[in-house]
Records
---
Amino acid sequence: MTHLPHPQPSSAARGEKEDEAASSFTRRGVLAGAAAATAAASIGAADSPASAQTGNDMVAFVQLSAALTGIADVKLATGNFNATPANSDPVDIRRQYFDWVNRRRPAVFRRLLQIAGDAQKLPEAGRAQAIIDRVQAAPDAKYLARSIVLMWYLGAWYDPGDLQKAAELPNHPSPAFKVISSKAYSQAWALRVAQAHPMGFSEMQFGYWARPPSERPVFIGN
Amino acid sequence: MAAESCIECDVAIVGAGFAGALIALELNRDANNPIKVIVLEAGAAVPANINEYLERFYTAAAKVPESPYTPEVVDKDDRPTDPSKVMAGRPTSLSLGANNWTDPKQSYLVQKGPRPFASTYDRVAGGTQHWLGTCLRFVPADFKMKTRYPSVPQFVDWPIAYDDLNEWYGKAECELGVSADLQEQKFLGIHFPDTYKYPMPKIPRSLVDVAVDEALQSLPEERTRFLEMEQPPTSIPVRSLPAARNSQPYKNRRACAGNTNCIPICPIQAKYDPTITLNDATETGHGEILDRHVVREIVVGENGRISHINFIQYRGPATRGCVKAKVYVIAANAIETPRLLLMSNNGGRAIANSSDMVGRNLMDHPYYVAWGLTQKPIYPYRGPLITSGIGDLCDGPFRGKRAAFRVDIGNEGWNFVVGGDPNVTTLDFVNGLNNSGLNAQPDRRESPLGKEALFGKALVDRLNEKFTRQFRVGFLVEQTPDLDNRVTLSQQFKDGLGLPRPEISYNLSDYTRQGMVAAYRMKDLIFEKMHVTEFTKKVAKDEPTRFDELIDGKIVSFNYYGAGHIMGTCRMGDDPRQSVVDKFQRSHDHGNLYLVGSSTFPTGATANPTLTIAALSLRTARHILDTDFRR
């Protein structure tokens, strides 16, 4: 666990509605704020040369993921995925996910990145929905898109071929999955969407459960 | 193995769980009178830290109770490995399915039925790291079931009463570090010494607890008459559970941070487990733990006294050895302790078994669960797994007719009941499936294909709305001690060391099943008062724990889980013809042999057994010092 950001003691007074990421003053929270202030641009050479990805690819991946998951980009890619120096994101799960998908389904992944890249020209208000609409209209890309959403939500890999069979064939067994890494598990979003935390990975403090959680946007930015 | 070449010590303890660890430490409280203790542990060594356990837990697809601890019982795809190849085998929840519970190639326990014994256990430190932390005392009536409820033929009295344990409960609560509110724990006759204080204030209630409590504050008598209490209650209190979970820093461990993961592993060790006491016991300089040492035989010498025990160690290539001590304490569990006694042949008879009670009266708390959605968010998946329950219905006149139950209230939503949420529900709404039941197509509730497959904000909205309203409730049902619920030795199947595996016969008595029926009615009452829409999955036809009962003219199918509370197979009593150990857990047959842990419980009550195991263990340690070492 030493490679994960360590939760820090809450600086807020006890007894208030002070729960969770809201006021527990975490690195994640601080860096997310910094990232939010920055506009999208290319990282260029700062990216790992060993990777097939370019800076634009990573921007497209985060935008694609944000549109499909409904979770704010600054939450998915904490820190600044455009900044110099790169890798100011202490979690940096996006890179692991990008590489994971790119190794398994490079061609279809390229199509999804293209869809997200093209959408950058659209006004921000309709961008997410435009990405979703185009993904839904592309049968070969749709199931990989679902795999990507599940990866972000659960830190686990569900093969798109298995998802397709489960969704289209009657009585097909529920697809198996593999937890991508311990980091992926601890960064999973499903229970943050539920205003909680991955089981076994609380960044909150004693007694938080006796009070209502913070509002949803505090957790996922939406 | 000749006794002359044995490792020598004062006290040999077999098993490093709660009972073994507590006794190992307690024997060396007095630094001026050291007692050399050797603990033989069948499983692996306690690691220096829990990082490896956590890594395994986080990356396990099936996050079952044993997932952090036992890499050898599953293969790389999380399927059970062949138990004949595992050195110190153990049951796993992955081998309780319809397709494999009776398959000895997958199930370490050779299950003969007619129903599955559904609890599992582990080996390292007794596997007790994956307990929940609940530290309830028994209620006084639990010790006197035959006297109080003579109409139930299976019941016997304990040879001790609540007052014999009162002081020891307090000592156990101190050692484990229990958080509770004293006034709140005074119910059904539970009482405390005048000056008593719990070590820490109680763990706060969750929002889920509060929702249940509010719903049960005003009840019409006609809705609670089925409980057959003294008087039909018009309100039923939800009480915080005493827990060995820190509510403030205690014994150098931090306060609970609500990781919602007590089972299988607390990532910050805010919850007590026996590795803490084992560490203290070895720190005394007089306690030693021999890991991967499986005791295979207890040998009787002169005057019925135990002369030595024989073990196989498998740290490297397996070798044999023996330990010679003044006193022997068998602290395995209620399956492994009788197994060892039965493996030890004393002139054609098992050890400590002149009563023929060794291995009989196997009990658990068969666990019935139900789940649904509340109308408003109650925010599960926050706080310890369980923080409150209903204990006030654990004793009353009904116990002459049907089993008591204790209610526990889950803070973990539908996590385990649907086979692993948040994954199941998330997959449903991402991929258009309906394994949770929450994404049903109109009029096609049973179909595995769901109504919606969502992306983006619609997905977030839907999952938030579902997850925050998930509710589940559980009922731990008292089980009668039945002679035919039994641990014996398999003649056919062996473990990786060539030792016979435990064979289990198990059933639920009518009395126990009627407790489930009452639990079902209680579930209806709770759901009605909380306005919960029920989603409990229909019990599959081939579900091995399934049984049907007629309730109000309707056939209701039940299934049950194991509670991990394995009890009863070396029962305690005053009469050597009817029981295996005396009130200090000493064998009636062998003066220097003690059997400790919940195997000695004559009846099982509804509280989880750990605190009572701990109290009895401390009391036995005192008795060993007084009588065997005259300290």
Note: Chain B touches chain A through 58 residues (CB under 8 Å).
---
Amino acid sequence: MTLKDSDKTAEENEHIRKETRHVLKGFSRKRRNLIPILQKVQGRLGYLPREAMTGIAEHLDISTIDIYGVVTFYNQFRLNPPGRHSIRVCLGTACHMKGGYITLDAWKRRLEINAGETTADREFDLDTVACVGCCTMAPVTVVDDKPEGKVEPTRVDGILLAFEQEREAREKEQIESE
Amino acid sequence: MKANRNTAVADAFKGIKERAESRWQELWSNKPVIMVGTATCGRAAGALDVLEAFKEEVKKRKLDCPVIEVGCMGHCYAEPMVIISKPGYPPICYGYVNPVIAERLVKEFVLGDNPCPEFVIAALEANDLLPSFNDFPRAQYEQKIILKNCGHIDPTDIDHSIASGGYSALAKALQTTPEDVIDEVKQSGLKGRGGAGFPTGQKWHVCRHERGRPKYIICNADEGDPGAFMDRSILESDPHSVIEGMIIAGYAIGTRYGYIYVRAEYPLAVERVKIALNQAKKLKLLGNHILGSDVSFDIRLFQGSGAFVCGEETALIASLEGNPGMPHHRPPYPATRGLDGKPTVINNVKTLACVRHIINNGAEWFAGIGTANSTGTAVFALAGKIVNTGLVEVPMGTTLRQIIFDVGSGIPGGKRFKAVQIGGPSGGCLPESALDLPVEFDSLKDAGAMMGSGGMVVIDEDDCMVEMARYFLEFTQRESCGKCTFCRLGTKQMLEILSDFTQGQGKIEDIDSLNRLAGEIKNGSLCNLGKTAPNPVLTTLRYFRDEYEEHILMGRCPALMCMHLIAYYILPDKCERSCDACVGTCTVEAISPNKKRIKVIDQEKCVKCGTCVDACPPQYNAVVRLSPPSEVPDK
């Protein structure tokens, strides 16, 4: 589910350009800086929209397609906006043997999306990761950058329940403050 | 080694060391110290909550008791782990700690006199009170050299490292010539620990005598093998050992430019290396005029972006240069033409971590460990179906059996050992008959596997070898950079054949196709990703052909793992009428009681997640897997 540029408001585009410029200030125009720049821009925006890639291309004086090539080559970069919470299921050897694929199925079933996608309400995005190196805690799911050990289907439900309660509390607070 | 060319260096280091030692001694003087292991594996088990609990409790009771974070001791099975050192007691290591236990330990041990033996794993030193790690059977095989400090020092405090022997090798090296350093490393027989096993001293020698300038040294910490976590652990637990190794390497080859290439999936390692680099700079152990000498060295940190192929050195260089990580043909090797076309040495994390010990203790000492062709120790990450998961360091030449059964304590749950997977996606699965092979570079290659970077995943009777082969192929197929046709398309073909097998749709002649494709991919690929990608398939075919045949000919998965070939079934005569454990836990509500209150699985709804097997109380054990699925009785 990639957002088309026409879906974005002028405001959003301006925000993207501003953030990109901010990152670019810290880097010289050498090609070698490309990956660190992309990492920083993604760190601020959560993903790499077209506007950002064009800005980086101008700064480094290379073609946008070159940047697109690098972005799509590496697993770390994403082209669509992330959800509020990121779910990354480890598919390393140890996790696989202890049922990582079953855990991934459980996440897919519950969130009703595939790996690499974001839920329609932008609450969750689901992805896989090759190995986070916590093989002794298999199967591992990295929830919002925190590796959680022994995540089996029932645990998936537990984690989602906690987020659901958090969300309810947040919405309640919002209503009260209004 | 000759010494004392530069006494100013010795003096400068002496001051730093004295200060570090006095701070270190002050930490241990007459007060209890709590050390919480907060490497990533600890954190996954909840170490940060434990750390918080200790801090809270100590603060609440206004105790003079520092709570510090340390790295990973390697006993990952017992995470979160905590060491408490209290005057009058040996330092004691506790395992499976949670915030409640933390509170009790402070109350009863730190404040009182009860060391709470019920939570103790072992003491760190021999004593009359508690068993120590040396009493464990594994102690007789283990020899910790590069893991020695891991879990015992605060990785974010350089003084801890210096007081434990850190940077003394650097000071020593700077007082000799670069040639002496290279000779020493050559004589030690140190081989690259990244998997290929190229002699490190030789690599440095070639690079030193290249004319191109500037030269570079790169630390390869792109530990991409799924199932391996040695490098992560070392960088998180003792980053200075790697940094020191790099500075010495830089001095030896004659450069001031160093890079550490770390995977983006290791945020904590990145953070701790950053801190370590800053601290080393402050003490003038890194940067301009190291320890007042005319040697300068800088290290920059570069984060990879999640591509397995970037562990290959030429791909890593492409990635550093801002390009997609695609390998190119060797020769020229990076030592002659690497980063920006300049001479570049690329060493693995563990290789660099060895350097300090070789300089400190001498080449002879290092060469005396291990076997004639493979000197030193090997570090393995034990994972999978093994009791003591975690990190082990044993002398080269230790047999696989000793590592798995004596150090790792064998297979949990009384299951039968089936195979061990070594070397990640490039390695192979070795069966029981290969267990007496000594671990060294050559012997494993003969058996069809390879040393690899050190991931060791143990497989038991519940794991399907066809599925394992398919899993690794899926991985290499996804991670193939796409440059070589055979790797890009051949692995895809192999994967499709294997997927058919695991779904019961294969044909027996497909096995020949697999063998043929494997040979073609090996010959037609530039880098080791492609050259070794067929290894998991070839070794499983060589040692476990009967499993393949059972999948193909009978549509049956003997290990009851392949999802398409099994069904879950509740044995009516074992199911307890009053129990509803499985009904409640089934994630898709596929289980319901029938008229006799015997639980029945709706096969249409079942997603085969296996939750019901865990939920069924052990006294009933009524849920079973059947293969092929047609085994399930109709009514």
Note: Residues 4 and 50 of chain A are 9 Å apart (CA to CA).
---
Amino acid sequence: MPLLEIRNVSRRFGALTAVDRVSLSVEPGEFFTLLGPSGCGKTTLLRMIAGFDLPDAGAIVLDGRDMADTPPEKRPIHTVFQSYALFPHMTVAQNVAFPLKMAAAPAEEIAGRMKEALAQVHLDEKGGQYPHELSGGQKQRVALARALVNRPRLLLLDEPLGALDAKLRVEMQIELIALQRDVGITFVFVTHAQPEALALSHRIAVMNAGRIEQLDEPSRLYGFPKNRFVADFIGKCNMLAAAVIDAGSTGLRLSAKGLGELAAPAVEGVRAGETGVFAIRPEQVRIQAPDAPLELENHFAGKVHDFLYVGEVTTYVVELANGLRVEALLANSAPGRARFFDVGEPVRVAWRRDAGVFLRD
Amino acid sequence: MAQARGDRVQRWLVGGPPSAFLVVFFLVPALIMVIASFRYPGEFGGLAPLLPAAPGEEAGLTTENYRVFFGERIYFEIFLKSFGVAALTTLVCLAMAYPLALLIARSPKRHRDLMVLLCVLPFASNFLVRVYAWMIMLGPFDLLFSKFAVLAAMVYVHLPFMILPLYTNLEKHDSTLLDAAQDLGANGWQRFWRVTFPLSLPGVFAGSALVFIPVLGMFAIPEILGGIGDWLVGNMIKESFLGVRDWPFGSMLSLMLTVCVLAIAGSAAWLARGGVARA
């Protein structure tokens, strides 16, 4: 049985439908992420799961029990807020002990579990300090310890890493994964940062305009986006307008506007005559000199428009015959990496016939 | 260097005049009052000369006023009563102002300014006029010249001084803290008692000081609305200067009142320091 079920939930604010007939289920022990741009409804959905807001339609079911009549303080669900929301007049220890006190746990149990929770987030020494004496990362850990200390069924995290700087964010991501594995509590994580979502989650629901665009594992979302929104939102993607010439069992033949024909992997249900875009990731596009041997089926001539060297890779922007710009990623450690291409230099971009995906309009 | 000196000159230009004002009109009178409390009263008010004009005349300095003050129970009792009235007024103001301040602070932003304005509206009319208005109100109910009349008017006059600092504090509270408390299992009462109230303590202390101290020195309300038994320190001081014209005794009473207030405020600040520093 799923731990959490969202059944056909809608929430409207005046004329705006913030959440539009969303259904999903979260399995016990899962690290589940709601990903989407700001205003997509992910935070509204999170607030409804926590109980701060109620759906206009549909049901939120936890452990098989409808939560409609359960106020936030009675739900076995805790939240880590974006601003941490630590109580400024309490010490770290008092903050972490707060949920235990509210649950009227015996004093000796409170002390033990508070220490255990602080140890879990490596803050054993900081119990006597006040929140304003801590760094951003430490506050974050206190918020986590406080939310986990009385072992909720579900932990909600509302953009918890948003306020941290880039380096600390990566450290906290690694800690979050380890922490979730250790405590075995189900996490529902809300973010607009797709690298974070891909790195942390078992499954991701990509949301846009109140609806779920795609719900899948990170690698499938990245490799097989279902539509243009997902392809564009998750990672970088080159998009070529294309029409289907032939749809066989082995693959599709597409005609890219102003470029010519190309081969693409088969997509279920796509027939000849349909139009859409062919989406391909920059790292799947190979860049080579025009006179190099042609090993791959799909190849187009162009010239280097610009490039961006960032150390481990160089991103080339190649302008094709039809004026379209395609990004190609070249690992600087690639075997046989002989030379760089300069701006204006004629090159060829190429990719395998099983790379990329055709997305219908 | 020139820049630093320019800054210093600027600082003196800005801070100098108000500081000078305070020295001339606050510090100097306070010192005069201290010295006056050790002198003899003049024959028709004012102070007796420091050097005797005729032999046997009272002149120079004396501790007589303090001997009377500490020697007679009546002064201790009237001080105690005054502090009692001030404490009671403060408590009633706090009990009435807190819910109101909370209500304003949690109202939609566009209504708040109007509500605050309504709270301070009584200041638009003269204080004495408002006290006399209470006379007219209480008269028909036979409540005039009683302890109740004094307390009611004290609370009425000082309530805005409690509401404003409380509102200013409560309005700044981060509402996500209450969400967090609720999320972590706190019911309505626990959210108030464990989060809102401790965070509002600086406002509680500020408001209490703004009510407690003026009430201690108040003489108009007991005089107009109270009976002879409802007199407070303020009435004694006023009577010393304007009634029996014993300036030194009045100065001594004022000074003792100031010392007591400072002692109370000091110990309250010392007790509250932890809480205030953290919030």
Note: The domain at 72-278 of chain B is CATH 1.10.3720.10 (MetI-like fold).
---
Amino acid sequence: MSAAAASLTSPRLRRGLVVPLLALVAWQVITHYKLANVHLLASPSAVLKSFVVQVKEGELFSQLLASLRRDLSGFLLGAFAGLLLGSAMGVWRIADRLFGPSFDAAKQVAVFAWIPLISVWFGTGESAKIVFIALAAFYPVVVNAYQGIRGVSREHVEVARAFRFSRLQTFKKVVLPAALPSIFSGLHLALIYAWLGTLGAEYLLAPAPGIGNLMIDGRESLAMDKVLLGVLLAGLVGFSLNALAARAEAYFLRWRVRNA
Amino acid sequence: MAQVDLAYKIAAADDAVESAPGRSGAYDYRRLLGRGVGWIVPALTLALWSFASRHEWVASQILPAPGAVWQTLLEQIRSGDLFLNFGISLGRVLVGFTLGCLIGVVLGVAMGLSRRVEDYLSPTFNAISQVPVLGWLPLAMMVLGIGESLKFVIIAHASLVPVAINTLKGIRSVPRNYIEVAKAFQFSRSQLLRRVVFPATVPAIFVGLRYGLTQAWLSLVTVELLASSEGLGFMIVWGRQLFQLDLVLAAIIVVGVVGLLLDRGLARLEKRLLRWQPVWDMAGGGS
Amino acid sequence: MSQSAVIDIRDVSKQYTVKNEVLPVLERLSLTINPGEFLSIVGASGCGKSTLLRLLVGLDSEYQGEIQVGGQRLIGTSLDRGIVFQEHRLFPWLTIEQNVGLGLENSPWSSDKKKQAIKEHIELVGLTGFETAYPHQLSGGMAQRAAIARGLVNQPSILLLDEPFGALDALTRSRLQGELQTIWQREKITMILVTHDVDEAVYLGDRVVVMQPRPGRIRKTVNIDVPHPRDRSDPTLKALTEEVRAEILQVSPVN
């Protein structure tokens, strides 16, 4: 596999930037020459202005913090539940046979489809949002924890048996480390989905401080620059979370041998 | 590419059931369990649900009885509403998915075969693929409005990401052993691509297709929830607005079942097309 | 189909550069291989024998020195030089028939002639009846036989074999060695076998080239003047085997 993005050599970096720069230019041109519906698409300069305004008089940081707090709660809840179910299904065949098909079916339903139901069952307050975020984080963790544990090589387990490891020892010393890369992938994905879930929950359920709120405000006052600002900030946070998760993954899994 | 590994791992997660090797010493209850075991949890859930609604643990508007949901489902079928919405949803998925797959394969092949193309496209592609489709929805709605094109674009996007990633990975993992055989037999570049690279990549493409279809179905429903006036996703929202939770639940159940059928169908197709697959061992093609 | 030609290896050297360190793999190796002979190249791991074979196939062209076939400089691969690898390297998505036919992909022969050749060579290696099977359905030995058929199907004048039986169990190995000898007697082409198995090298070869490692050089060439078909229990053969084995052990004592 080609080296990680970190080691970009000059020509590669230059080539890689071509498309994003073109996109930025296109964006400015489109809005400047009113090629698309200008009521819907704000220009980059307008968004920038909005950003400055928000930082000065809006409480951009506190909104951000509120979103992140919600995100974290939901993520932890969903990830924890996901690890439980995924590991159970991975370790005990019965759990797999029992819950697998139902989980598979439930997995086919888009998370956002649960919002109408959640809004009735949990209201539209903080708990509803956190439940939704947890749901978004839940699925990828289950899938990856399951796959990680099931994927532990039989050979390694047999070594443990040859040394008469107890079930717990086998789990701690063989299964868990071997499953860790997969589990981390799952957590990584869950982090991304949880953040998206956070934005979605804020946008679709009752208003409360948060980035989603910024977007709602913008939508209601038809201030597209605010909406776009929200979108961009959301993207930025998402990107940072992603980078953080990747770093953490790389750190914890230093020993992993990369193949192909 | 860490991102490619990540997505590939996730895409392959669903295949774990078929190919899972060792386990950590679970008891073998296989003999005690028949094939119907998967139905136990749904059956228990149904029973609990029935019980709860009969004894009115929660108001019936909030938790309609299973019977009511079933009735609503039948009504919807009889009135033709269900088929209408289902048809629209399915149609959108088919168009979007096909589009996404074609683009995805082309992208994956292009990036896989040419380092230059990969240099140009992969940073942008990685950035785009890291954002789940939902993230693009607000932007897409701004640029495309809420017509059919929005749905097609979103669904195509959702499908093309896993397909492209898996195709790319597939092309990169063609064992060098086979390429050397082709060299020894003086294959031209076109022969190499047609007779070696492509067949060797097909299994990986299928992994991408399966994951892409799941993503397509998920994103379809989501778009319909947020920006549509027909389709299964819309039914969910509509039911909520009318405070008819039986409709909501019925629609959710249909979504889940159809999604499952689509996935299983594709798995069947894969099995038939790749009859030669069972053992891809080191003797033939390790690197 | 072409006449067997003399293979001339003159002063061939090759190095690998790993992290700014230069590792010599072959050093000024010279060897002449006569048409129609069965040459075994044997040596401990790291002696460069597989590298030499890859140079002869044409899969690797970075080296110093000259390799000539029939007076012509060797450039790239050729349909006239077949190869059998240690792994069978059959394409899993093709049937045995189609795999064997791969060798004829770029052959100018008519389709009928090709079909005939495929049939004959499948028969030659004893795989009649398995034409439509997939590689995964065959045992290791059978798959390797198919690989041999593939290597021979377009009737090259030289067949190169890189530890072809290394991945097989001893019994299958023994049997296939006998079959290879029979095939060689029938086809009368030049065969160059690289192996670490001394018994195999002596049993099959007219000449055995013993290589020594670090850097790869020819230590000794032993002529095996025993008529074919050979009997493994032949005392001359056994004596020669011990001679070769002693040569190898001298160079790489057990460490």
Note: Chain A touches chain B through 93 residues (CB under 8 Å).
